[in-house]
Structures are given as C-alpha cells and as structure tokens.
Amino acid sequence: DEGESRESIVMFPFMAHGHLNPFMSLARRLGQRKGYAVTIVNTPLNIQKLKSSLPCKTNIHLAEIPFNGTEYGLPPKAENTDTLSYEFIGRLMEASEKLESPFKNLIINIAKKEGNFPLCIISDMFLAWTVKVANELGIFHSVFIAGAAYSMGIYFSLSLNTNQRGTEEEFALLDFPEAAKLHQSQLGTDLKYTDAIASLFRFRERQFLLCLRSDAILLNSIEELEQIGAKYFRRKTGGKPVWMVGPACSIAKEDESTQQGTLTKRLSSNFNDLSSWLDAHPPRSVLYVSFGSHNTILASQMKELAMGLEASGVAFIWVIRPPLGFNVTEEPKADEWLPDGFEERIKKSNQGILVRQWAPQAEILSHKSTGAFLSHCGWNSVLESLCHGVPIIGWPLAGEQFFNSQLLEKEVGVCLEIARGIKTAVVEQGHIAGTINLVIGKTVKGEQMRRSVREIQQKMEDAILERGDFKGSSVKAMDEFLLRAAIWTKKKHSVDSEQVSNG
Ligand code: UDP
C-alpha cells in the first residue's frame, strides 16, 4: 500500500546483540500492524548488521546516527558491546549518552520528510536520555525493557540503591519487598559496587532514573507471568502505564521469512548438518548447551561440564567458545580446553556435536528432538526456550540472569539451577549428569517441568495471537500503548495538525 499514510514509530536499541534482537522482533510486530511504519535508529555498523535480519517485505526502515568511537577512546569500529572487554563496554555506554543532539536532528529530519512528528519514541533502558529529546519535541516516549519485569525490577532496585545488599547472606530489597530474598551469590560482579566499576553504576543510575521519567514502560514478558514485577514498575513510576508486550524473541518459523533466516538455511552447512543430526534422534531427547552471545566460563568448568555431559549418556549440542581469560573471538581449541580425546569420542559414539562460537539457536530449540536447554538464562534465550516448549537447566552467570533463573525455578517451575556465577560456581560432573537425566528423562520432575513449560508456551502463543474477535494480552497491551501515544502526541501537536489539515 504505497500511498497509504502511516504513523511513524522510532525505536532506538542499545548496541548489543541481546538488545538489538528483541527490538527487532518488536519492530517486526509493530510493522505488521496496519497503518504503522517503524524506523530503527543506530550507529552505522549496527545498522549494517541489522539489514540482514529485516523481513523481506517490510515497513521497517533503518536510520544511521553518525558515530566515531575513537573520539571516546574506543578502538576503531567498536560500536557493539559483543566483542568489547569490560573497560570498553563502559566507554561505549558513556559515548552513547553523547548522541543526544544527532538523535534530535535525526527526529527533526524524519518529521520534515514525513510532514509529521513520529507518534512515539521507544528507547532502550540504557538510552533513556532520549526522553529529554522526546520531551523537547513533544513526542510520547517509552522505554522498552527487554527483560522480565520481576528480574529487571530487582536489577533496577540494586542499581538505584547500591548499599542495600549489606553483609547478611540473604537480604530483602527495600523498595521491592514482594520479590524473594536474594542471596549474595546471586550478585554478579556487575551488581557488586566497587570503585573499579563506579562509572558503570553511575551510568546505570542516570539512565534508570530517566527510565522512570519516561511516559510509559514496555516489558518483554507477558501479563500472565508477571504480577509482582509489574507492581514494582507501576509503583516506581508513580503509576505510569506499564505494558507487557512480549514475547519479543526469535521464533524459528518467523525467522524463516527474514533474509538472514533464509541465508542461514541456504548457506550454512552448519545448520544442515545439525538439522539432519537432530532428525536422527528421538523426540525431546537432545540437550542444547549455550551461554548466550558473549559469556564464557572457566577452562576448568568447561572440562567438568564436558565430563558431566559425557557421563549423562544424553545426546547434546554444545556451543563452545574460548574460556574466561582468553580472546573470545579466537577459534576455540577443543583439544586444549576439553578433556583428552573428548571431541573424537563424542563424534565416534555420535553422542554429541560441538559447535564453535555460534549456533542457529532458534532453529535448534524449535526442533522436535530438542528436549532441554542448559542455559545462562539470558532473557532472550529463556523466551526462545519457553516459546518452543523446552525446559531449562540454569547456570546464570551475570546481571539479571540470576533472577531469571530464580523466577523460572520458583514461580514458574520450568527450570532447575545447577550452578551460579562464574568464578564462584561449583560444578561437579556427577551433579551435572544427574540433573540432565532428571530433567530430560522420564522422571516425575521431568514430566512436571515439561507440563509447566507446555502451559507457558501456550500462554506465550496466546499473548501475541490475534484471530477473529480474540486478542491476546500482549496484543491488547500494544493497542493501548499505541492509542495512548497517539492521543498524547497529537494533543501536543494539535496546532501543527490543524495547520496540516487546513492545507
Ligand atoms: N544466540 C544464537 N546463537 C548462539 C548464541 C546466542 O543465536 O550461539 C542468540 C540467542 O538465540 C539469543 C541471543 O543470541 O537470541 C542471546 O541473548 P540472551 O539474552 O540469551 O543472552 P546474552 O547474549 O544477551 O547474554
């Protein structure tokens, strides 16, 4: 519908794989709605990366914001946190705050081109400074927090009140009493305040306070799962609208329609091999092991995990990358970091496959032979697992992953945690093998987890379903959000629109 006029929505995700992905997925859903067009803003290299994940036919546009990282002490071409060390991630975060005036110019240019200001700006929680631009231009602003309300509530609480963790082994959160007590072992290094990461804390505090000033909060979860977390954000924002619009994640059948999806299938012999390997296994019998897009564990833990996998006798696909302390982009050396002869043995016995660096995760999780996911509990991985009905064995490593694992185990019953943290994690092969068999095998616990995950899978599917008169909770939330944004932005610009309609 070329001539049809569309309301424009501007989205600005933070520059990290785990943020770009859910934004893209939400953008896809918004772009499928009649009468809307989405513009995703980012730095040039990230825009280039996003091009390949655009659906073939789309109302999603990409817009570059000029960025020169070397001005901020970043290495050349460093525009994404995925391959950056801690020190540089902090710099990239701070550099992102300097994009205010180019971002404002970009919005003004969009408005000039389209003859109208965008309906709303949806920004990342780390780019909440965009609320200032939105306010100046009279545009409705919302942050999209791409995590669970429960876990992000805890993450906000810990970031905004740095000294509440005290010294007790367990402690309750002052401003989030509904959440379960936390154990000190659930705080990764990024949530333990030290002088070395003081600037990271200050950055988060600045952005999170701005999040609470935004006009609304969108969360990547579903109403049916998240009463406690929603309450936290409603209270902290002083009663502003908080909408659950998830799940926004990679769903294999949706990904097929993107250029990247087609590409992965067509070009990657990797996926073809994996897919036929999976085909040859019984339903729900394979364990998939991955720690997300950038996390790694210790070499000693890799060895112990390898022995646990082997001892379990369960078939597995394991995405390996160099252990902590090594260059993450380096080719992982199985012979050096894994037990002697491990890869050969699992190949010969056909028990397992090692994938180096990157696997087509959504495809693997959607395969009928996949029966459990040993995961670091990053929220994208969690959603992908739940949407494909796969129970989780949790090994949270950082950030809010600990709270995701807790939510999934204690409230939802779809996860069993086997270890916690990186340097502090105690992993023991016998325990690993036992837990894998408990979850994937025909045990009471395993059956229970599969039942719970099927229920939650159904709820996730229903939440984004629109058929006949039926609208899922996330669809309704999105309707409300768009309506609120339209009324709000139009009111601010009523003078302009009168001028437009009077010709
Ligand atoms: N992912 C993938 N292949 C891999 C590792 C990760 O496709 O080998 C994708 C995964 O499907 C998910 C994202 O990368 O969408 C990881 O996000 P998550 O929130 O789970 O973890 P993070 O990487 O942010 O820690």
Automatic annotation (TrEMBL):
SUPFAM superfamilies: UDP-Glycosyltransferase/glycogen phosphorylase. Its EC number is 2.4.1.-. Coiled coil: none annotated. Residues 8-247 form the Glycosyltransferase N-terminal domain. The keyword Glycosyltransferase applies. It is an enzyme of class 2 (transferase). It comes from the Eukaryota. Transmembrane segments: none annotated. Pfam families: Glyco_transf_N, UDPGT. Keywords: Glycosyltransferase, Transferase. GO terms for molecular function: UDP-glucosyltransferase activity. Belongs to the UDP-glycosyltransferase family. PANTHER family: GLYCOSYLTRANSFERASE (PTHR48047), OS04G0273600 PROTEIN (PTHR48047:SF61). This is Glycosyltransferase. It comes from Theobroma cacao.
